[in-house]
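request received
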Amino acid sequence: MSQPLNFVPVAEFRERARSVVANPDLQKSLRGAMDFLQAKRSAQFPDDAEFQRLRDLGEAIRQYSLSRLPELLEVLEAKLTENGIQVHWAETPEQANTIFIDIAQRHNARSVIKGKSMVSEEVELNHALQEAGIDALESDMGEYIVQLADEKPSHIIMPAIHKTKVEIAELFAERIPGVDYTDSVDELIQIGRKVLREKFAAADIGVSGVNFMVAETGTLCLVENEGNGRMSTTVPRVHVAITGIEKVVEKLAHVPPLLSLLTRSATGQAVTTYVNMISSPRKVDEADGPDAVHLILLDNGRTQAYADEQLRSTLQCIRCGACMNHCPVYTRIGGHAYGTTYPGPIGKIISPHLLGLDSTYGLATASTLCGACAEVCPVRIPIPDLLIRLRTEAYSNPATASEAVRGAGSAYSSVAMALWHAWAATYRYPALYRLFTWCASRFRFLTPGKQGGWTVNHRAMQPARRRFRDQLKDRA
Amino acid sequence: MSQTTARDKILGRLRAADCKPLPLPDATDFYAQRRHEDLATRVERLALNLSNAMAEVHRTTSSELPAALSRVIRDKSLSTVAVGRDVLARQALCDQLQNVCALMPVTTAHAETAALFDRVDAGLTLSYAAIAETGSVVLWCDSQSPRLLSLVPPVHIVLVDVRRTFDTLFALMHQENWGSGLPTNVVMVSSPSKTADIQQTLAYGAHGPKQLIVMLVEDH
Amino acid sequence: MTASTATQDVYFFCTCLVDLFVPEAGLDAVTLLEKSGVRVHFPEEQTCCGQPAYTSGQPDEARAVARQQLGLFPKPWPIILPSGSCAGMMRHHYPTLFAGTPDLARAESVASRVWELSEFLVDVLGVRLTDYGVPTRVALHTSCSARRETNALRTTRALLGQLDQVTLEIQDHESECCGFGGMFSVRHPEISGGIVRDKVAAIRACGAETLITGDCGCMLNITGHAAKTGTAITGKHLASFLLERALGLEALTKKGGAK
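response:
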């Protein structure tokens, strides 16, 4: 099995990014995939005015839900319990995994089939289950492919987006017994279907994520195209859903606008093949469905984001992935380079709460702040502003750093700070600024030919012979 | 026990943030600004959206339904068709269908799961409603209507009473007062099972039915 | 408004990049404004809008530098910048930067008067250009700040559209960032280089002879990368290009009546 990827030394992020940028094949397939997803999304929002009205509504619903989060979670818990769904709370990934393993042991479960769940990736459930001697198999085609390759998903919606058809064909031929090489997508999908159907029928527990939890009815909503989500939540005798505490909304009527924003933004679909709303385990006179349904609610740093008014907007996210599909950085480096469960712009703003800013501040600086992410975000998360805030937290003096984010002040360096002080001193006093720029211009021949990171990609910058202000005077 | 503590700690931290409650958003205005179509237009939109999503759409009337359905079953050589209590309650329809296939009742808890995976050719279900905007069929899964019939067999056939076609999911929820409670499972189905997980290439029949056959039943 | 009506006064904020690295863009912008009948005032005490520190997570340093600029515009005149990025900083981020400080009112006053050059030429002055140049093909790169924090995409295209002999070629992925991002280009050259590499290739492929942009940061990024990799791209600031096309005092004429 793969190593946990949830620790991200900044230097390794650079190295991973560099190697992807230098790989022409990967560049081509990433660009192609992003172009495809952008075009699909764009076709779903032909009327910008309608899109903006729907965003207003989506943003308002998410902000409202967060503003009442503790009460809504209690209502949700009470309603789910009344419906027969058992609710568990986990502060950390370890607690979530312990809860899961307890459930599995109570049901004597040996095998688990998983629908797509990013939160289960976040807590590295597969790894924990393996250590507990329980088989866990991914059933989403993309997740199945990356699991077969001992990898992690590189995208939250399209887990195997980094792999080409030929790579998948080779993987299937090598890793699935009795399968001959084929690069027909239909045949590959049918191979996956056949393998996984046997597992669905035999699995003791089905795992899923949740897209929206509805407090008023005690309902878990899941969207998907393949049917594996429905299989995982219907065929095994036990269903365990795992999700973050932020996914709750109060009213069922809040689901349609969010659902529409989600599917149109994510994959450019008016709706997914299946929208699955689960409100209870199998009732006594029903023919199918799990006899027990559990929900694990995970914190893992979300309460930290929640505590700060600005950072709270991070939790508005509905995990559509549009931010990464439109990100020039993601398009160049792909999902694995980030090293975090959630890649792309959303990963840069959520990961510091999950993992600490000390191991993730290098992600916050790895953005041009171009704003493409915020422009497409269906719930209007101001991602560039949050990146600037996280940079501010990371570079603040540890002695005086705020407690808003764990690891604040970890990027502080007295040398860098001295340089910024010097910069500010020069630029806040016009006389000093004029002296500095006059010298830079007068002695331009002394300009170094190597200018740090700049000259890696550019010819060295050289000041003009005469500054603008001098030439303006000459002219007059 | 640590779970109680985790719950209290999480809720405690959330409460400590002392977040100002915001006004309850009302989606009604947004949906009120959108077009409302008459039933005939809604049905056309439903049929078009379903067809575009690769569902096979048949239009029939309640009197012609048994014959139309028998024809579909015979044409596709579906020898075993699984049904729930809701379909079984339609005695006349079942009597006719038994001339062209074997109907397998799915009524006992977990009894037929293996058969559904191994030897059933199609699941036949009723729909609760339909949604024009997205071309969706809504299944209301309870004691009358099992969940696996629309999922496990390679073909799913669903009967839609077109008078139950709503503009949007929002309109359906609102008019039918879903907020007061839902059955065990509600599913919106909008196409055969599909995936684009391999190099963004669309393929049908990922895990669920490879074919979705929608019988639109319209009486004028 | 016609050329003969009372002259309007404006402040010009040249930006630190123009002052030291691309002075001709500033001079050409001033000339354009003057030829459109505007009296241009250049406050000598100006330095930098503070953006480099702001986006680097140094709000205190950014505020210290930005505060110096707040006192430079005492008259209620518009403030014109030959940069969408710096205009976006002053218009959108100054109120945030100075929130809760005694300088907020001054910051908001400055923010409300900031115009990116092309916005002012089109939306306020209603400039009409006559093209005296030979036929040419150009590509336009609009900075992300200009695109998302100002109206410069619309107004720059409107200005180029007035030039009869100029064909605007749309490069592949025209709306995508060039990978500059200020300190990002220095801090993350491995990623920045990948983005600008593609931008240079797209501009080369679209058949344009000149790259036009209203932001010197993007221009230095794109042409600097092109030069480093031996690809020739001629970059021109929009002001320089417009002036060159509509050369001669009489070339700039104005339509009546814009606000």
